[in-house]
């Protein structure tokens, strides 16, 4: 697995726990999407709804340009995060979760 977390978060979930939860949501949603023949729009909406239900804000999902996977932007406890999930890896792979400094 790639480097999972670049720095620890504050309050609520630690960045490592947050990374695992985001990874699990994306993995479950992707497998469900493929099994049910859903499109990317359904996938993005499904993941966004679950992540928002976890208390994450400003959730945006897009295709990652450098590998077959997704880039997920979100905000938690006043910090901005970007998670990259590779869906072509044998067991999926959360490649990295980056934490941007607060503005």
Explain the overall architecture.
With 103 residues, the protein is an alpha+beta fold. The protein has one domain. The chain has 2 helices and 4 strands, in the order ααββββ. Strands 1-2-3-4 form a 4-stranded antiparallel sheet, with helices on one face. Helix 1 runs antiparallel to helix 2. It starts with 14 loop residues before the first helix and ends with a strand. 22% of the residues are buried.
Strand order of the largest sheet: 1-2-3-4
Poorly predicted tracts of residues: 1-11
The averaged pLDDT comes out at 75
Strand tally is 4
What tags apply to this protein structure?
four-stranded antiparallel sheet; alpha+beta; globular; single chain; 4 strands; 35% helix
Q: How would you briefly describe this protein structure?
A:
35% of the residues lie in helices and 30% in strands. With 103 residues, it is α+β, with helices and mostly antiparallel strands. The chain has one domain (15-100).
Give me the secondary-structure topology:
Blueprint: H1 15-36, H2 40-53, E1 57-63, E2 69-76, E3 79-86, E4 93-100
Helix pairs in contact: 1-2
